[in-house]
Design a protein that fits this description.
six-stranded mixed beta sheet; 40% helix; five-stranded mixed beta sheet; 11 helices; alpha/beta; 270 residues
């Protein structure tokens, strides 16, 4: 009887040990790993105009603090380039453009959800010069005295398009066109002016706002160019539609509005 008792105890311990070592599901994953996998963040990809970089970087922090299971990664660039990437199937969840025309083209193509897009922000166009400039360039018309002028490529950079419209409105584009140095986006224009590689540049008010190395010499009249509007919308084929809508709604929140205002943007839906 004693031997049988010892044998039964050993057998029971062996069965328990085998059960502990066996995988909980195919592929060798244990229950612990399954819980870790399910707790991983859903990461959204947001393509956004370069001029939004500072404001959106701050908004990312507050959003992720509020929604711990959702992360945000940005793809910043010119709105035209970003729109082309989305048209060619880039895996994007949300598009935040600095121009209505680039955005509307994607809506018409059925790439942006018609029920989840909004004209969210406004901006202004300014002429900037290096902080220590001698003051020779004080207005758009005085650009005739400049040797080099930085402007975003009008075909892909909305700020460049607005700049060209303004200079044409003032009837000086044809006189200074040969002096223009084209940039890939508005932040590159800002860099050219900051480093003194050009005498002046045309950017958004919000770009001049964040730099201590430039100053605004003049602001373009609203009538001199098309309205500067920033639309945002969810990509229809987003891999994470629920989380994309969460971030889309957060962009319209009071918390986000404070950040946009802090960086000089104008709210269109206040």
């Amino acid at each position: 009887m004693k031997r049988k008792s010892i044998f039964a105890s050993l057998l029971f311990m062996l069965i328990i040990g085998c059960a502990a070592c066996s995988p909980a599901e195919p592929g060798g994953k244990t229950g612990k790993n399954t819980r870790e996998t399910s707790s991983e963040k859903t990461v959204l990809t947001v393509s956004a105009a370069a001029s939004l970089q500072d404001a959106l970087s701050e908004i990312k922090k507050s959003f992720e603090n509020k929604y711990s299971t959702v992360g945000v990664t940005y793809n910043f660039g010119s709105s035209g380039t970003l729109a082309q990437q989305i048209s060619h199937g880039a895996p994007v969840d949300l598009f935040f453009s600095a121009a209505e025309d680039k955005f509307d083209q994607l809506v018409k193509k059925g790439l942006i959800d018609q029920k989840n897009n909004i004209d969210l922000l406004g901006n202004e166009l300014v002429l900037i010069v290096p902080k220590e400039a001698d003051g020779a360039i004080r207005s758009f018309t005085s650009l005739a005295d400049a040797e080099k002028i930085a402007v975003g490529m009008p075909e892909t950079v909305p700020a460049g398009q607005y700049a060209k419209e303004t200079l044409q409105h003032l009837h000086i584009w044809s006189n200074i066109e040969k002096k223009v140095i084209y940039a890939k986006d508005v932040r590159q224009v800002l860099t050219y002016v900051e480093t003194g590689n050009v005498d002046a540049g045309i950017v958004y008010k919000t770009d001049a706002f964040i730099s201590s190395k430039v100053k605004a010499a003049a602001t373009a009249d609203d009538e001199s160019h098309a309205p500067i509007v920033y639309p945002a919308g969810i990509i229809l084929k987003s891999a994470h539609p629920a989380e994309a809508k969460l971030f889309y709604q957060y962009l319209q929140s009071a918390e986000a509005a404070k950040v946009f205002k802090k960086y000089g943007f104008k709210g269109l839906n206040e």
